[in-house]
Design a protein that fits this description.
alpha/beta, 5-stranded mixed sheet, 5 strands
Length: about 270
């Protein structure tokens, strides 16, 4: 009897230790694996036998041997607008929020990879960049732990540059396709904000920047057409101008100065 009691105590102790040693997001990691497994199972099905197949009249399914995974072609940079990385991690693991990203970078430079690069995160929302309206389906979202009013820490920017270099090399992402959330959704968003070091990123090959020596824009220059050619949605011209100035001129004025027009002209020719 005493022997059985000892066995029970040992078993309970081991169970307690295992429970205590679980990572903080054990429960949501389990849900992640379950959802990923469900998508994997769906991919393995022959299209002809699935209920939601777009074509069901074909006599049989013929599986091509020539295919690969779809790759991201854009990177969209955000600030979290929250106070801590832990707060953002919690936000991204609550189903009711319906928001997520692929990476979170803490103020101290720690990088959290929270979603497989090939999966679609819910980070960009409604907006337009060039002809793209569904940015979530072709991009990687990176959230920087920043409440939107503070400078970005050196360690955080250093980690971001390392991550961007890896992503650009892995997926052959064009230099021009590193943008901010506000560039894609100028009427709704301001992130990553005027304090973000876009010039530093551009100097490292991530995003465009205007030349140090600018030529004056020609007389009659159509700056709205130029902004559209750069990528901005100019349906709301005021929002587009503010987004451009926030990114490239690091101010939020609604009016365009002669220098602003010269920068737009320069970037248009680089796009």
């Amino acid at each position: 009897m005493r022997y059985l009691l000892y066995i029970c105590i040992i078993a309970l102790t081991c169970a307690t230790i295992i429970t205590c040693n679980r990572p903080p997001y054990y429960a949501t990691n389990k849900i992640y694996r379950q959802q990923a497994g469900e998508y994997a199972a769906r991919l393995k099905q022959n299209p002809g036998i699935t209920a939601n197949d777009t074509l069901t009249a074909a006599p049989y399914f013929v599986g091509t041997t020539n295919f690969t995974m779809r790759k991201p072609n854009f990177v969209v940079i955000h600030h979290t607008a929250q106070q801590t990385t832990e707060q953002t991690l919690k936000t991204f693991t609550l189903p009711r929020t319906e928001v997520s990203a692929h990476y979170i970078i803490a103020r101290n430079g720690t990088v959290y990879h929270i979603l497989n690069d090939y999966l679609r995160a819910h980070h960009a929302g409604a907006g337009k960049w060039g002809s793209i309206t569904d940015m979530n389906s072709c991009s990687i979202g990176i959230e920087l732990d920043n409440n939107g009013t503070e400078p970005f820490a050196d360690a955080q920017v250093a980690s971001l540059l390392v991550l961007l270099r890896q992503l650009k090399q892995a997926y052959n992402i064009p230099t021009a396709n590193f943008i901010g959330h506000a560039d894609f959704a100028p009427a709704r968003k301001t992130d990553p904000g005027i304090a973000f070091p876009w010039k530093t990123l551009a100097e490292n090959g991530f995003g465009l920047w205007y030349s140090d020596t600018l030529r004056s824009a020609p007389e009659g220059f159509n700056y709205l057409l130029a902004l559209r050619l750069i990528g901005y949605d100019v349906h709301d011209s005021t929002a587009a101008i503010k987004a451009f100035k926030r990114h490239y001129m690091q101010d939020t004025a609604r009016q365009l100065s002669p220098r602003d027009l010269s920068a737009i002209y320069d970037l248009m020719n680089k796009s």
